[in-house]
């Protein structure tokens, strides 16, 4: 039974899933809008929103945590902390939007755009 087992596996093992989410998070921060499958966008949303919430705190500890969650890539972490997070200072959540697009031509998988609001 799959009670309380909510993680999407995407047909990958644990390391591959983490690498996939790492790439998606870094791309979303760099471009502020990416097109991916609907399932990947829905899985990415909570992870990126937790990072933005943590970046809004503004303490040294929270900045270090954001940098470590972004795999010590300081350019992306700096962009998140200095550019993206201050736009949402008054919000308590809901920093991203997932817009459904339709089906991909090659394999008919559902596509979506995830972007910062």
Short synopsis of the structure:
With 117 residues, the protein is of the alpha+beta class. The chain has helices spanning 14-31, 38-57, 60-69, 74-84, and strands at 33-37, 96-103, 110-116. The chain has a single domain, classed as Ribosomal protein L17 (50s Ribosomal Protein L17, Chain: A, Alpha-Beta Complex), CATH 3.90.1030.
Structure overview:
The chain is of the alpha+beta class. It has one domain (34-116): Ribosomal protein L17 (50s Ribosomal Protein L17, Chain: A), CATH 3.90.1030.10. 50% of the residues lie in helices and 17% in strands. It has four helices and three strands. Strands 1-3-2 form a three-stranded antiparallel sheet. A hairpin with a 6-residue loop joins strand 2 (96-103) and strand 3. Helix 2 packs antiparallel against helix 3. It is globular. The N and C termini lie far apart (37 Å).
Helices and strands in order, then pairings?
Elements: H1 14-31, E1 33-37, H2 38-57, H3 60-69, H4 74-84, E2 96-103, E3 110-116
Antiparallel strand pairs: 1-3, 2-3
Helix pairs in contact: 2-3
Just name the CATH architecture. Answer: Alpha-Beta Complex
| Helix fraction bin | 40-55%
Largest sheet descriptor: 3 strands, antiparallel
Order of helices and strands: HEHHHEE
SS elements, strand count: 3
> Number of helical runs?
4
Mean pLDDT over the residues = 93
Could you list the spans in which at least 5 consecutive residues all have pLDDT below 50?
A: none
* Strand portion: 15-25%
**Morphology call:** globular
Classify the secondary structure makeup into a structural class. Answer: alpha+beta
